[in-house]
Fold each of these.
Amino acid sequence: MTTLEQTGLSQAGQVVHKHYRSLLRTRRLYTLGSLGLLLAILVGALLFAEASNSGKFIERLPYFFDFFIHFRPDEPMEVVRAMFDLPSPYADGSFKYDYEVGRVYLFGEFYIPEYFYQLLVTINVAFLSTLIGVVVAFPLAFLAAANATRLAPLRFAVRRVLELFRAFPEIVIAGMLLAILSLGPIAAIAAIAIHTIGALGKMFYEVVENADTRPDEGLRAVGGNWFERVRFGYVPQVMPNFVSYFLLRTEINVRASTIIGAVGGGGIGEVFRLSIGRDHAAKTIAIIILLLVTIIAIDWLSGVLRQRLVGDAAFRFGA
Amino acid sequence: MLKISKVSRRFGSKTAVDDINIEIPAGQMVGIIGRSGAGKSTLLRMINRLIDVSDGTIEFEGKAVSSLKGQALRDWQRDCAMIFQQFNLVPRLDVITNVMLGRLNHRNTLLSLLRIFSEDEQLMALKALERLDIAQTATQWAQTLSGGQQQRVAIARALMQEPKILLADEPIASLDPRNAQIVMDALAEINEQQGITVITNLHTLDTARTYCERIIGMSQGRVVFDGTPDQLTTEVARELYGADGLAEAFSEAMTSTTLEAAKPRQKKKKHMAIVPGTAFAEASLPN
């Protein structure tokens, strides 16, 4: 133990130092403990995965590129023809070259190419379900947040409902809804919306719980009711993060809607599964390009949108 | 010696600081006064290089600090500590760590990231806190402290940098008069005892007159006054603040620009002299 002369600290200062060091020890102990636990879990999980694998990973590795070598269109232009439903010179009456069949005529000779139309179906499912999810998750989040809702039983109930909603993957919910809503985009929308409510609700209420409670305190002192306090005490604070999660969810839901499409939900996923299953390279590559462009476009759009909603101040550096 | 030559700063088409020339010898305590928007903050932020100059050069001991980059720039920022109106501490980090963060530029990055600080640094931080009379708060989160306490933590952090210059951007504008006095006293003491140059932006003439040996008045980005407190006559003040702003400039009670804590308006310095010690019992005793 260092003495007063050595440290130059007063008696009280030394007590504080001792207290700080004991806190530090505890924190380090917890940190090391957690790290050790994490490592143990990681090693265990890897060993388990290795044990439950069928063991052909290494043997099959040399054939990894076979798929890409055989899966090639007749010529690069075929991809463009598949994408825009133009007649193919290779046409032989088979499904492989029936590009024009999928055209969706709007009026006269004007048509939307099949894959663009299907992409629209998929994006529509994603947007609608995200929107429904946000509208429902938004109020639920404030009911589930401990700082906004004092009533513990209500909070408990809302949180359990949110957990129930996000417990099942979209695809499982879609399967359950199949009997009621039959195949197609409506079932997909319902399934994705339910999962989105659960997932976004959790994100949202955690954002609310991280918010500063002082504005709320101020509004309580003013005599504001619960709705007013939420509206002015929390909403302005949490909005930027809500927007971020909303946009991320939109992106996730485009993927989810593609996957559900592949198992009968309609949209680009369905045609993608068919074309890759039937070994139609030109069609498959056209769809992959469209999907990639869509994700990039959504990412760019969400960036623009967020900057608008959050305000330029958050993006300025320094000054 | 800090030498500011022909320095300008423009934001878009607006000129915030316009062709400023100042020389500040080592160890001086300088107050920069002027209305809000006069370019005081911009000037300080350019000295610390939080923002860059548009034109001109800033030199310190013959070195052009306005064009430094990378490690050299960070070294300059270490030598040129800054404290802010809103304290700019890390709210969810304990006070002593906040203070030790002042050492960042002196130490190994990896150790810093792992939050490993040596015994010496802990003691140094505690001594700095003790000097400012807030050592008891060391293990609390910074955000739990009152404004005056937070500003003292910020000063302690600045001291940990072992700076050659201390810049203070409206250090007392968010504080009540009692805490304002404590903070200004601390700055003056640092200036006197360690010979650190202190350059502080101030709202009010009273404070500048009381604490600073040299006052620089700014208006619309230009220096319109540079001299001793005695030379600062009412006419000069009128030019600086305009006829309307004069009352505000002289009034200590109007110091605060934010509506943070409850602050009765009559808490003037004069008022304080009537009932010393009783009117301003420490509101939030540290536990």
Note: Chain B has one domain: 2-274.
Amino acid sequence: MTELMRPHAEQEHADELAALVRVDDRPRPPSWRLSPWAVVTYVLGGTLDDGTVITPKYVGSRRLVETAVATLATDRALLLLGVPGTAKSWLSEHLAAAISGSSTLLVQGTAGTPEEAVRYGWNYARLIAEGPSRAALVPSPVMVAMETGGIARIEELTRMPSDVQDALITVLSEKSLPIPELGSEVQATRGFNVIATANDRDRGVNELSSALRRRFNTVVLPVPATAEEEVRIVTRRVAELGRSLELPPADGAEAEIRRVVTVFRELRRGVTEDGKTSLKIPSGTLSTAEAISVVTNGLALASHFGDGVLRAGDVAAGIVGSVVKDPVADATLWQEYLETVVRERRDWKDFYRAARDEDR
Amino acid sequence: MTRVDDTTELAPAEESVPADAVVGATGPPETQPPVRVLGIRHHGPGSARAVVAALTAHDPDVVLIEGPPEGDALVPWVARGLEPPVALLSYVVGDPTRAAYWPFAVFSPEWQAMAWAVEHRREVRFMDLPAAVTLAPRRAVAQEALPEDAPIRTPDAPGDGDPAIAPDLAYENADPDPPSEREQVRTDPIAVLARTAGYDDPERWWDDVVETRHGIDPFDAITEAMAELRRYAPPPRSHAEQVEEDRREAQMRTVLRAATRDRDRVAVVCGAWHAPALTGKLPPASHDAKLLRGLPKAKVATTWVPWTHSRLAAASGYGAGITSPGWYQHLFDATDEVVARWFTEVARVLRRHDLPVSSAHAIEATRLAEALAVMRGRPVAGLDEVQEAALAVMCDGSEPVLAFVTNDLVVGERLGSVPGDAPLVPLDADLRAQARSLRLPVAPEPKDLVLDLRKDNDRGKSRLLHRLRILDIPWGRQMAISGTGTFKEGWRVQWHPEFAVAIVVASGYGTTVESAATACLAADPGSLAEITSRIEKALLADLPDALPPLLAALDQRAAHEADIAQLMEALPALVRSQRYGSVRGTDTTSLEAVATGMLARVVAGLPAAVGGLAPDAAAELRPHLDAVSATIGLLSDEARSLWLGGIRKVLQRADVPGLLGGRLTRTLLDAGQIETAEARGALGRALSHGPSVIERAAFAEGFLAGSALLLIHDRAILSLVDAWLAELAADDFLEVLPVLRRALGAYNQPERRALAERISALDREAEPEEVEADLPLEDLAEALATVRLLLGGGTGGGTWAGHAGGGGTGERGTAASRLSEGGNNEGGTAASVTGGGVTGG
């Protein structure tokens, strides 16, 4: 096992990528290491003709992934939108790794991201010693991607200041980056593209200008479509996390995971799974990632303070904490949910009691 | 090999070609009149175009179309102002609930065939089983039992594998599962072929495989493919379905034989699945005659009715329909650049919704759709690809925005029209039949009616008039009538000729007044107020089937209603509706369930809604709380305990306004939820520790309002109030007085009298209970006198009467009478009263 805490996608799945390159005989867009079909297979998993098993990286709609890959193949930039915890960055990393073999040309969008992170900066010692030259110029990940025909990733695009965002407009529309100091420019090699992610819960942070927005095709990553799918994701991640946190495995987790997922899904969608009762939607996001942390937390409680069996009481506190973010509105809707939905479910009595105790 | 081009000149050439070269299995043309069998996809624009080309080439004398022969006489209307989408409708005379529809859009091959025939003055004959047979009671009985949720009822069973034509509707509704591959082989065999070839969108497959190969007549290939498909297809789900299918094809062959006898050139337009059964050497006529012998028949009438695109779509319960009539219309209209033209339309729709979409978007969307098609190994972009590209490029990934495109374009709502002089629609027939049986004359002269709802006939009239009002056919206007009694209703009925139009419009909702009114109520319910009013209408018009969808909508609105007061306002009405409904014999259990659910929401939101309210707002909320408390008894015990539990929870809060705190404590006490001692404690605490004197008084007001019995019978509470009043400082008393007056002024005369007696008794006797033992009763005299004054106001009797001089107008009574007179001017009067009271005592 590697000593690295978290290897990049292209490192971790190097053998799968190599196998795909071997069998992939479909036409590839310029500079792409794989054909669009192979990229989709890499992301969604499958078995190749030569028997290599490709693990699924993203569990979700094939159509979305196809739209995303087709977008990149038409040289339009791709904007992945979604609530926190819907695997936007995860998908962006794997797409970049599969298409250009490197997921490391990354710009993290923050309120303090400078324009240099998108265009270029200077090595000032050299600039002063030698004057402006290409050697004194420090290229940004975007610039490197342009030169090499690779994929640049921009995380949390909407958190960047608007003026920095707009530096991308020329890059995306003209496919060139002027360097006025040197009187030259960098023109993008074919294959260059940008994958940006943004959280549509705080869309208002720095809303994209319509000029920039127009350069992107938008793919909204949804929360998992079915309860089964979400239970599977939560179970798998909880198991992985449990191993790395060295939590002893607890019994009865399956039923509680299903319950956590059910509660999250119902409140998120504003309707019960049987479609009979409508619900108010809480202010929190209730993402799958949060469900995972509720369950992990419950496991820790169960194994360190309980009898090793994951019970309703172990997850109730976590659920209430995730749902009730606003003390008035969310508390009300949680009460409504408990009384109109949870109370009616015969096999949820333990959870109802635990949640009510939590409430006091 | 000669090609059959879509030119008439080539038609004779085709005839001379050896049969197996082009006409394929249609039989030897030398010995039989040439028959062309055109196996189509229902509502398939590609088929429609090909049918027109084939008809033009073949130039038949008679066109046989899959459909009920009752429609033969109605074909001329195609040229007389029918605008598709329209449907042929057959209904059982005297029972319009049993009806079957055959809908046609412009791009339906059957419609195109009819239009071609009418234009070229050729005969059209429908060749399916008569509606008289399909609607015959033997099937209807079985179908009546099926649950139905669509506005349109058709009693016909499918069985045949041809659900693009409506007789299968009822069946499809009854079956919640989407059609499996096994069924789809029958229902839409061309879609199965397309999917086998890797296409999601059968029309795009048709375009790609059939249309783009110009000049090759597709129908023989289709027939051959279907023959193969039929050979290996799984059997239908039941024996009955197989029999039904055999009968239909027997009928088709019978009509075909008759046509070949008396006409030279025949064209057959039928669902692709049936094409092989009508091709080649037909089985002996006697075989078919045996199958068709002795089928029961119903007396049916047939007419044209307007239809809509959305009702062609599966979304409205036309289970076997098509989901994208607008897209098909586009495929039918667009001759080239299908995808680019589509995105231009999408851009136009989005702009109409004020969304900024440029031509650049349309270009990028076209590119993406084509890239997606390539990636999926499809030669052309289908509906899936264009929708996904529109979502990613033009809608910023927003599903709600894409819904504009879906509604306006993919479904592309369109309402067909039928000229006014077309035969009677079944709704009209039903209306007139009902009016006749209720002896209600359809006359233009106004006539006033007073209906006694206890009589069956009058109740029937009221029901009919209410239902017609729902359908926007205001035959009767409700009139105020003198006299009491909820069983009477006044109406003025007057028939206007323009109702004919309203009836045709309403006939889209259903075939009978009842089913149409139900569907109309359930459609698009709107706001909370609108829903409750519709629930009321549904109960008035006795339409129990309209309730479940309305209640579901109500539940949804209630979930999203943040204002507890609104919910509390709606709740008593709902609970009463439940009672009201039960008077009329409607099943209202579902209504009760919704009311209980709504109560749970009120209870959940109550603590937050009550906490920290200003006095004004608290006063506004109080009647709602009282109203809910008053009606809660009509619901189940469980609901009652939920409500009372909710109140307890509210009372645990520290920031409940005094008025509501008092009121809710009293509610609990009256409901027997808390002991008198507990209530006493609460009152004592509130009166001694309330945040301000006015809040304390408000608590007392809330607690004491309503009935005086508590004060009369609970000496301890009376003493508590008494003591509190006595200890008030003069200024505070001044402030408190109007509040108390409000609370106690509502007691009735005997109550006041009784209370006065108790107070005087309190004055005389030493209190035996320990709570009061510590109170310096002798110091309370003044306050007690004031209380008497407050309560007195004209009460006589007992000890008090002696003091006051009776009648409330004695010397001590002066202040008291001023108080009671001054109800509308409390502040000013109270000042003088206080002075008088304090000194006077």
Note: Chain B touches chain A at residues 356, 358, 360-361, 364, 367-368, 371-372, 375-376, 384, 388-389, 391-393, 395-399, 552, 555-556, 558-560, 562, 597, 600-601, 603-605, 608, 642 (CB under 8 Å).
